[in-house]
Write the structure tokens for this entry.
Amino acid sequence: MTAYISTRGNFPPVSASTAIKVGMVPAGGLFVPGEIPVISEKQLLALTKYDYISTAMEIIAPFLDDFSADELQECLQPAYLDNNFYHPLVAPVCSLSNSLHIMELWHGPTAAFKDLALQVMPFFLTRSAAKMPDRKEIVILVATSGDTGKAALEGFKNVPGTKIIVFYPYRGVSRIQELQMTTTDGDNTYVVAVIGNFDDCQNAVKDIFADRFFNQTLAEKGFELSSANSINWGRLVPQIVYYFWAYTRLLAKKVILPGEKINFVVPTGNFGNILAGWYAGKMGLPVHKLICASNENKVLTDFFQTGFYNRNREFRQTSSPSMDILISSNLERFLFEITDHDTGKITRWMTDLQEKGVFQVDDATRKLMGEVISAGFAREEETMDAIREAFDSHRYIMDPHTAVGYWVYEDYCRKSGDKTVTVLNATANPCKFGSSVLEALRGRGYLQGKDEFTILHQLEELDGISLHPGLRDLEQKPVLHRTVCEKKEIRGLVERILEK
């Protein structure tokens, strides 16, 4: 059975179910599989004939080997049915050119890529909890920079035996993202705006997880904490699936030959999405380069180019708010893997990051990082240019996060001359960020006097695109969550919510 171990060597190995139920290592650190399963070339070719659910079964089963095949099927089947995803292929791959292809990850209920993981994760979590001898009510704590919050709320609302509390930066997400969260119904959902940025939300949640006394107090009251952020392995493992899915779609279309390596461009802030691609490569997917795309909060770009991680910098609010992040939690897993599970280094680097806001890897680690990952960033004006260029050249409308990836990819090609077939992860429906998209396409000043929902409908008319069902009539739904707090008040707020 696959054992899950701590990136900091401070916790005994656990089963997949325990890793998912607990979420984050209680003493600090993240769970990772002790061994990474391998998919053979024969299996990879067979996947070209599979649908999305069957592909997910094949990729996820080796990681969750304490789930029976029936249990896994019972998790995946309801998660990816037609009433959850509005495209029959779940994550269709379309072509902009012979070398660049777009994987649309936004056809789920909240119009963002997080749905691919967060529609199935509640099933994983409740199944995992049922395997444990002492069953408590599970409290899901979520820090979100925009999209994870709504996707988690949709996944967990009204799930028996759970409560979910989502924290987002006050005035740090788009109006549509905010309304998606604050209009969520469900008798177990709580949404809180935090005066601060995403890192403030994430750090507060991490501190709560790491506080053993607080966790013990909650346990005595019948509660147990878990997470729906990508720090939870149950959230990360479903994301590995769509990398195999994209590759096998290109194989099926004869765009690539068996064994041919491809690139993936991944807009990322917390490093979970791109880390899933790295795990896919370690499993045997023919990956040439993972291109890490950042916005002006380019802490990852600087890190991969210099080996020096420094979160002590100006935080910028951008048109791609889900990437407005200065502490990339999943980087810890990546560094643990490429240093051959060197817990001493990881503990030292993560302690430095927490206490000083900086850490620096050694030259050998930096070299290993660069072998598979290339990093770049896009400024705000470049992001707007990319939206306009993609529309003018390909009649394809991108949201700002995907446009960051598009710009970084074009810049990568100019500098490297790399002509490898590439898949760009499209992480959100463009209508979620209609103001930015329409301003990019129509010019500054065009938005004056228009509210976000007028803009949304104008964008819908622009090129005959249909409004995503998850965004339809959003402005007419009642706001059910209005709580705003300071970051220092988060812990007390959690206690008060659980006393209700």
